[in-house]
From TrEMBL:
Annotated Gene3D superfamilies: 3.40.50.11270, 4-hydroxy-3-methylbut-2-enyl diphosphate reductase, catalytic domain
Enzyme Commission number(s): 1.17.7.4
Record-given protein name: 4-hydroxy-3-methylbut-2-enyl diphosphate reductase
Species of origin: Aminobacterium colombiense (strain DSM 12261 / ALA-1)
One example GO MF annotation: 4-hydroxy-3-methylbut-2-enyl diphosphate reductase activity
Binding site for isopentenyl diphosphate: 41, 74, 124, 218, 220, 262
Length: 279
Protein backbone atom coordinates (compact mmCIF):
# COMPACT_ATOMS: atom_id res chain seq x y z
CA UNK A 1 0.00 0.00 0.00
CA UNK A 2 1.38 3.43 -0.96
CA UNK A 3 1.66 6.21 1.56
CA UNK A 4 0.59 9.63 0.27
CA UNK A 5 2.03 12.74 1.92
CA UNK A 6 0.84 16.22 1.00
CA UNK A 7 3.20 19.19 1.50
CA UNK A 8 2.12 21.65 4.20
CA UNK A 9 1.36 24.38 3.32
CA UNK A 10 0.44 23.80 -0.30
CA UNK A 11 -2.07 25.08 -2.87
CA UNK A 12 -3.96 28.39 -2.69
CA UNK A 13 -2.25 31.22 -0.82
CA UNK A 14 -4.32 33.69 1.23
CA UNK A 15 -4.56 36.29 -1.58
CA UNK A 16 -5.60 33.85 -4.30
CA UNK A 17 -8.16 32.12 -2.06
CA UNK A 18 -9.65 35.49 -1.12
CA UNK A 19 -9.82 36.59 -4.79
CA UNK A 20 -11.50 33.35 -5.92
CA UNK A 21 -14.01 33.40 -3.03
CA UNK A 22 -14.89 37.01 -3.93
CA UNK A 23 -15.34 36.06 -7.57
CA UNK A 24 -17.49 33.05 -6.70
CA UNK A 25 -19.80 35.18 -4.58
CA UNK A 26 -20.30 37.77 -7.33
CA UNK A 27 -20.93 35.05 -9.93
CA UNK A 28 -23.54 33.43 -7.74
CA UNK A 29 -25.23 36.63 -6.44
CA UNK A 30 -24.99 38.95 -9.43
CA UNK A 31 -24.13 36.90 -12.54
CA UNK A 32 -21.47 37.17 -15.27
CA UNK A 33 -18.32 39.22 -14.77
CA UNK A 34 -15.29 40.13 -16.94
CA UNK A 35 -11.67 39.64 -15.92
CA UNK A 36 -8.81 41.43 -17.63
CA UNK A 37 -6.36 38.53 -17.99
CA UNK A 38 -6.74 35.14 -16.29
CA UNK A 39 -7.76 35.71 -12.65
CA UNK A 40 -5.52 32.77 -11.69
CA UNK A 41 -2.81 30.80 -13.51
CA UNK A 42 -4.74 27.56 -13.50
CA UNK A 43 -6.67 26.53 -16.65
CA UNK A 44 -8.95 24.02 -14.86
CA UNK A 45 -10.06 26.56 -12.24
CA UNK A 46 -10.61 29.24 -14.90
CA UNK A 47 -12.67 26.75 -16.92
CA UNK A 48 -14.77 25.94 -13.83
CA UNK A 49 -15.40 29.65 -13.20
CA UNK A 50 -16.12 30.30 -16.90
CA UNK A 51 -18.99 27.78 -16.65
CA UNK A 52 -20.45 30.01 -13.92
CA UNK A 53 -20.18 33.18 -16.02
CA UNK A 54 -16.58 34.42 -15.85
CA UNK A 55 -15.40 35.98 -19.14
CA UNK A 56 -11.62 36.45 -19.55
CA UNK A 57 -10.48 39.16 -21.99
CA UNK A 58 -7.07 40.50 -23.01
CA UNK A 59 -7.88 44.18 -23.35
CA UNK A 60 -10.31 46.72 -21.83
CA UNK A 61 -11.67 47.34 -25.37
CA UNK A 62 -13.14 43.82 -25.31
CA UNK A 63 -15.32 44.65 -22.29
CA UNK A 64 -18.80 45.88 -23.22
CA UNK A 65 -19.92 49.14 -21.58
CA UNK A 66 -21.63 48.85 -18.19
CA UNK A 67 -20.18 45.45 -17.37
CA UNK A 68 -19.01 44.03 -14.06
CA UNK A 69 -15.18 43.79 -13.96
CA UNK A 70 -12.97 41.72 -11.68
CA UNK A 71 -9.45 42.82 -10.71
CA UNK A 72 -7.15 39.89 -9.98
CA UNK A 73 -4.88 39.46 -6.94
CA UNK A 74 -1.83 41.04 -8.70
CA UNK A 75 -3.65 44.38 -8.89
CA UNK A 76 -3.63 47.06 -11.60
CA UNK A 77 -2.32 50.61 -12.03
CA UNK A 78 -4.43 53.67 -11.12
CA UNK A 79 -4.53 54.62 -14.82
CA UNK A 80 -5.97 51.25 -15.83
CA UNK A 81 -8.41 51.46 -12.92
CA UNK A 82 -9.70 54.77 -14.34
CA UNK A 83 -10.00 53.24 -17.83
CA UNK A 84 -11.98 50.30 -16.43
CA UNK A 85 -14.28 52.63 -14.52
CA UNK A 86 -15.45 53.99 -17.89
CA UNK A 87 -16.49 50.47 -18.95
CA UNK A 88 -17.96 49.28 -15.74
CA UNK A 89 -21.05 49.38 -13.62
CA UNK A 90 -19.23 47.65 -10.79
CA UNK A 91 -15.51 47.01 -10.26
CA UNK A 92 -14.85 44.05 -7.97
CA UNK A 93 -11.37 44.48 -6.56
CA UNK A 94 -9.66 41.14 -5.85
CA UNK A 95 -6.23 42.76 -5.30
CA UNK A 96 -4.41 40.93 -2.49
CA UNK A 97 -4.04 43.14 0.62
CA UNK A 98 -0.28 42.45 0.61
CA UNK A 99 -0.07 43.76 -2.97
CA UNK A 100 -2.16 46.79 -1.94
CA UNK A 101 0.34 47.47 0.84
CA UNK A 102 3.19 47.48 -1.71
CA UNK A 103 1.15 49.87 -3.87
CA UNK A 104 0.72 52.26 -0.92
CA UNK A 105 4.44 52.09 -0.18
CA UNK A 106 5.46 52.97 -3.72
CA UNK A 107 3.04 55.93 -3.78
CA UNK A 108 4.61 57.19 -0.55
CA UNK A 109 8.14 56.91 -1.96
CA UNK A 110 7.09 58.85 -5.07
CA UNK A 111 5.39 61.56 -2.97
CA UNK A 112 8.49 61.99 -0.83
CA UNK A 113 10.77 62.43 -3.82
CA UNK A 114 12.71 59.18 -3.80
CA UNK A 115 14.16 57.67 -6.95
CA UNK A 116 12.45 54.27 -6.96
CA UNK A 117 13.83 50.79 -7.51
CA UNK A 118 11.51 47.76 -7.66
CA UNK A 119 13.24 44.43 -7.10
CA UNK A 120 11.38 41.87 -9.21
CA UNK A 121 10.45 40.67 -12.67
CA UNK A 122 9.46 43.52 -15.01
CA UNK A 123 7.13 41.29 -17.05
CA UNK A 124 5.02 40.26 -14.07
CA UNK A 125 1.56 41.92 -13.87
CA UNK A 126 2.13 42.94 -10.23
CA UNK A 127 5.29 44.88 -11.22
CA UNK A 128 3.64 46.41 -14.29
CA UNK A 129 0.88 47.68 -11.98
CA UNK A 130 3.42 49.13 -9.51
CA UNK A 131 5.22 50.90 -12.34
CA UNK A 132 1.92 52.22 -13.66
CA UNK A 133 1.11 53.67 -10.23
CA UNK A 134 4.23 55.88 -10.39
CA UNK A 135 3.75 56.54 -14.12
CA UNK A 136 6.72 54.42 -15.15
CA UNK A 137 9.13 56.37 -12.94
CA UNK A 138 10.62 53.29 -11.31
CA UNK A 139 13.54 51.09 -12.37
CA UNK A 140 13.02 47.34 -12.12
CA UNK A 141 16.02 45.27 -11.07
CA UNK A 142 15.86 41.51 -11.30
CA UNK A 143 19.42 40.57 -10.36
CA UNK A 144 22.43 42.00 -8.55
CA UNK A 145 24.40 42.49 -11.77
CA UNK A 146 21.79 45.01 -12.98
CA UNK A 147 22.15 47.56 -10.15
CA UNK A 148 24.26 49.85 -12.38
CA UNK A 149 20.98 50.75 -14.13
CA UNK A 150 20.07 52.78 -11.06
CA UNK A 151 23.09 55.11 -11.28
CA UNK A 152 24.12 57.31 -8.33
CA UNK A 153 21.31 59.09 -6.52
CA UNK A 154 20.87 61.11 -3.30
CA UNK A 155 17.60 59.46 -2.20
CA UNK A 156 16.70 55.92 -3.17
CA UNK A 157 13.48 54.12 -2.31
CA UNK A 158 13.36 50.34 -2.66
CA UNK A 159 10.40 48.00 -2.80
CA UNK A 160 10.04 44.32 -3.66
CA UNK A 161 7.80 42.05 -5.72
CA UNK A 162 5.72 40.15 -3.18
CA UNK A 163 6.99 36.78 -4.43
CA UNK A 164 10.66 37.78 -4.51
CA UNK A 165 13.32 35.42 -3.14
CA UNK A 166 14.49 37.01 0.12
CA UNK A 167 18.18 36.14 -0.49
CA UNK A 168 18.12 37.87 -3.91
CA UNK A 169 16.35 40.84 -2.32
CA UNK A 170 18.99 41.16 0.43
CA UNK A 171 21.88 40.86 -2.06
CA UNK A 172 20.47 43.60 -4.32
CA UNK A 173 19.67 45.90 -1.38
CA UNK A 174 23.26 45.68 -0.10
CA UNK A 175 24.61 46.61 -3.57
CA UNK A 176 22.15 49.51 -3.85
CA UNK A 177 23.24 50.87 -0.46
CA UNK A 178 26.63 51.67 -2.02
CA UNK A 179 25.03 53.97 -4.61
CA UNK A 180 23.15 56.44 -2.46
CA UNK A 181 23.41 58.66 0.62
CA UNK A 182 19.90 57.93 1.85
CA UNK A 183 17.97 54.73 1.23
CA UNK A 184 14.51 53.73 2.40
CA UNK A 185 13.73 50.02 1.98
CA UNK A 186 10.29 48.44 2.20
CA UNK A 187 10.50 44.68 2.37
CA UNK A 188 7.15 43.82 0.77
CA UNK A 189 7.91 40.13 0.30
CA UNK A 190 5.00 37.87 1.21
CA UNK A 191 5.94 34.57 2.84
CA UNK A 192 3.42 32.40 0.98
CA UNK A 193 5.78 31.50 -1.86
CA UNK A 194 8.75 30.76 0.41
CA UNK A 195 6.60 28.60 2.73
CA UNK A 196 5.43 26.46 -0.21
CA UNK A 197 9.00 26.08 -1.47
CA UNK A 198 10.32 25.12 1.98
CA UNK A 199 7.49 22.60 2.39
CA UNK A 200 8.43 21.00 -0.95
CA UNK A 201 12.12 20.74 0.04
CA UNK A 202 11.10 19.10 3.32
CA UNK A 203 8.68 16.72 1.60
CA UNK A 204 11.45 15.55 -0.75
CA UNK A 205 13.30 14.09 2.27
CA UNK A 206 10.48 11.70 3.15
CA UNK A 207 9.14 10.38 -0.16
CA UNK A 208 10.28 8.32 -3.15
CA UNK A 209 8.78 10.69 -5.69
CA UNK A 210 6.85 13.97 -5.86
CA UNK A 211 3.85 14.87 -7.98
CA UNK A 212 3.67 18.61 -8.61
CA UNK A 213 0.13 19.65 -9.47
CA UNK A 214 -0.66 23.01 -11.05
CA UNK A 215 -1.05 25.04 -14.22
CA UNK A 216 1.76 24.89 -16.77
CA UNK A 217 1.37 28.68 -17.04
CA UNK A 218 2.01 29.08 -13.30
CA UNK A 219 5.54 30.35 -12.56
CA UNK A 220 5.38 29.48 -8.85
CA UNK A 221 4.30 25.88 -9.67
CA UNK A 222 7.26 25.65 -12.07
CA UNK A 223 9.56 26.76 -9.27
CA UNK A 224 8.23 23.96 -7.01
CA UNK A 225 8.91 21.50 -9.83
CA UNK A 226 12.53 22.75 -10.08
CA UNK A 227 13.03 22.54 -6.31
CA UNK A 228 11.71 18.96 -6.21
CA UNK A 229 13.86 17.99 -9.22
CA UNK A 230 17.04 19.49 -7.74
CA UNK A 231 16.46 17.49 -4.57
CA UNK A 232 17.36 14.42 -6.64
CA UNK A 233 14.15 12.39 -6.46
CA UNK A 234 11.75 11.38 -9.21
CA UNK A 235 9.31 14.22 -10.05
CA UNK A 236 6.37 14.61 -12.37
CA UNK A 237 4.38 17.81 -13.12
CA UNK A 238 0.71 17.40 -13.99
CA UNK A 239 -2.24 19.78 -14.26
CA UNK A 240 -4.82 17.24 -13.11
CA UNK A 241 -5.06 13.63 -11.88
CA UNK A 242 -6.00 12.16 -15.26
CA UNK A 243 -2.63 13.18 -16.67
CA UNK A 244 -0.76 10.88 -14.30
CA UNK A 245 0.72 7.81 -15.96
CA UNK A 246 0.31 5.03 -13.37
CA UNK A 247 3.64 3.47 -14.45
CA UNK A 248 5.32 6.45 -12.71
CA UNK A 249 4.00 5.14 -9.38
CA UNK A 250 5.64 1.76 -9.78
CA UNK A 251 8.23 0.93 -7.09
CA UNK A 252 7.39 4.01 -4.98
CA UNK A 253 6.21 3.23 -1.45
CA UNK A 254 5.78 6.90 -0.42
CA UNK A 255 4.49 9.49 -2.85
CA UNK A 256 4.45 13.24 -2.14
CA UNK A 257 2.09 15.88 -3.51
CA UNK A 258 2.89 19.57 -3.76
CA UNK A 259 0.88 22.31 -5.46
CA UNK A 260 1.44 25.92 -6.52
CA UNK A 261 -0.29 28.90 -4.89
CA UNK A 262 -2.73 28.95 -7.81
CA UNK A 263 -3.79 25.30 -7.54
CA UNK A 264 -7.30 24.87 -6.08
CA UNK A 265 -8.00 22.35 -3.31
CA UNK A 266 -10.36 20.34 -5.53
CA UNK A 267 -7.51 19.43 -7.93
CA UNK A 268 -5.35 18.31 -4.99
CA UNK A 269 -8.22 16.22 -3.53
CA UNK A 270 -8.95 14.70 -6.93
CA UNK A 271 -5.31 13.59 -7.20
CA UNK A 272 -5.29 12.17 -3.66
CA UNK A 273 -8.46 10.19 -4.40
CA UNK A 274 -7.02 8.86 -7.64
CA UNK A 275 -3.84 7.75 -5.88
CA UNK A 276 -5.84 6.13 -3.05
CA UNK A 277 -7.94 4.17 -5.52
CA UNK A 278 -4.78 2.89 -7.22
CA UNK A 279 -3.13 1.52 -4.08
S1 LIG B 1 1.58 35.24 -2.96
FE1 LIG B 1 1.23 36.60 -1.19
S2 LIG B 1 1.00 38.62 -2.11
FE2 LIG B 1 0.70 37.17 -3.76
S3 LIG B 1 -1.49 36.79 -3.83
FE3 LIG B 1 -0.62 35.23 -2.50
S4 LIG B 1 -0.80 36.05 -0.42
FE4 LIG B 1 -1.04 37.77 -1.84
Amino acid sequence: MKQIIVADPTGFCFGVRRAIETLEKILSDEGPIYSLGMPIHNPQEVERLAKKGLVVVDSPDMIPPLSRIFIRAHGISSELFSTLQKHSIHIVDGTCPFVKKAQERIKLLAREGYKICIIGNGNHPEIKALQGIVEGKATVIEKKEDVTEIGKTAKLGVISQTTQDSKVFAAIVSELALRTQEMRVYNTICNATRERQDATRKLAQFVDGIIVVGGRNSANTGKLYDIARFSGIDVVWIEHAEELDRRWLSGKARVGITAGASTPDWLISQLKNTLSSRR
